Amino acid sequence: MSKRIIAISLLLLITSCKSTLSPTEKRILTNEIDAMGTIDQVAAYIPQGKYANYSREKWNTFKDSVMADNTKRAELLYKKYGYLGFDKVGEKGETQFWAIVQHSDKSVDFQNKVLKSLEKEVDKKNASPANYALLYDRIKINNGKKQLFGTQVDYKENGQAKPKIGLIDTVNVDNLRKKYSLDSLKKYLNFMTERHFNMNKNILVKEGITEPVLYK
Fold this sequence. Notes:
Elements: H1 3-15, H2 23-44, H3 56-81, H4 86-102, H5 108-123, H6 129-142, E1 153-155, E2 161-163, H7 173-179, H8 185-199, H9 201-206
Antiparallel strand pairs: 1-2
Helix pairs in contact: 2-3, 2-4, 4-6, 5-6
């Protein structure tokens, strides 16, 4: 074997993702993802607890800081381990890692890389198909394009959820959603409408909207 081939082989070994983890490594990695996922969900929701009295500016600064720090760390973990699927961090950890990537909107290139890996892991039943659909749509929206599954929403003036920007295929959307373990679009939009109403009830009631405006 030539020196050149040996050098290339060593480089591949060094740069390739680590696929086999010891029980101790899995535990440490899972704990780290859990901590990152916990603060991610705090920042992704409305201000509560000790954050409830934050000014809008202070809250946005906190939220941006959390997302930026998580993105930076997630990129390093992805480079080292690849996609963190069930085999590495369990089902909860996989969803937490996905959520961190989902909220890495200022790093769409990173989201795209992860999406390709996630698709392969879904095929191996090592990741959630629903998470794939959600990330797929998120990337489409971040690029100003219509969605495939309708998972990303914004809201009408009456608080009713609707697919943000629109759908690529309105006829087959429910068949696609079912394939990726998602509820029907109407059920999902009604869930998001109710969630939005509960999160913004004080504001909506003042505008005369006293209950969620659901799709029939």
